[in-house]
Amino acid sequence: MTTSRTVLVTGGNRGIGFAIAERFVAEGHRVAVTARSGEGPEGTLTVTADVTDWASVDAAFTEVEQALGPIEVVVANAGITKDMLLMRMSDDDFTSVVDTNLGGAFRVVKRASKGMLKARFGRIVLISSVVGLYGGAGQANYSASKSALVGFARSLTRELGARGITANVVAPGFIETDMTAVLPEQQQADYKKSIPAGRFGSTDEVAGVVSWLSGDDAGYISGAVIPVDGGLGMGH
Which of 170, 14, 173, 168 lies closest to 78, judged by CA? Predict the structure, then answer.
């Protein structure tokens, strides 16, 4: 990324979101993160926001705009899981995951689009998952919400593409985070056997792809799904 931009990363207080925010700071951008608790990396502005609440999202954007200027790059990363087999999955297990992962992306992008349309420039990056297109037993809610981001990004591309705004999806596979670290060693070994690269990815590897998509070199890429999964989801 060559031009310095104002960037907002949702869910930037841990894991992949934290690494993405860290990368943008290192590259000299003005970076804000939203978090329900905790802080983003050093050099970022952390604002409290609940992506399931429009007023909360709106207030967070206003705070960032006043401090750093209009948001030019938005990375919709905030997400939750409530894994459960279909027969046992409650309505709330389903709707809360969809409202956070898909509804949250909608609210954040809708609010960001105001400034992007005015500036006739914008980069929208939606963090999905290999599970979005590959599927996962016990993850009907999560998989559906992450798959839906593809249709969302492609509709945004058709709607906003002529205004200098791109919308792309990054689909990470198994990444080394707190969530994968707690898996039993045997389970980790089994997962690695199914990944052609033979290893889990790093949060930095995801951050690098997000940074590139947000930069000057990716201005003619929109509506794409970029897997960062070591080859796990090939063909999906």
Answer: 14
Does any domain span residue 233?
no
Count helices and strands in the chain by DSSP H and E runs: 9, 7
Q: What is the pLDDT of residues 180-203, one digit of tens each?
A: 788 888 888 988 999 999 999 999
Residue 231 lies in a domain: no
- Confirm whether 142 is a catalytic residue: yes
Is 62 within the bounds of a domain?
A: yes
Report pLDDT digits (tens) over 127-143.
999 999 999 899 999 99
Give the total number of structural domains in the chain: 1
Q: Using only the alpha carbons of the chain, give its radius of gyration.
A: 17
CA 1 to CA 118: how far, in whole Å?
Answer: 22
Q: Residue 153 pairs with which residues in a beta bridge?
A: none
Does 235 fall in a domain?
no
State the sign of the Cα–Cα–Cα–Cα dihedral 139, 39, 37, 150. negative
| Contact call for residues 110 and 42 (beta carbons, < 8 A) | no
Residue numbers of the domain that contains 105: 6-225
CATH number at residue 92: 3.40.50.720
Measure the CA–CA gap between 53 and 33, rounded to whole angstroms.
Answer: 16
State the catalytic residue, choosing from 134, 142, 191, 220: 142
| pLDDT tens, position by position, 86-112 | 999 999 999 999 999 999 999 999 999
pTM over 0.85: yes
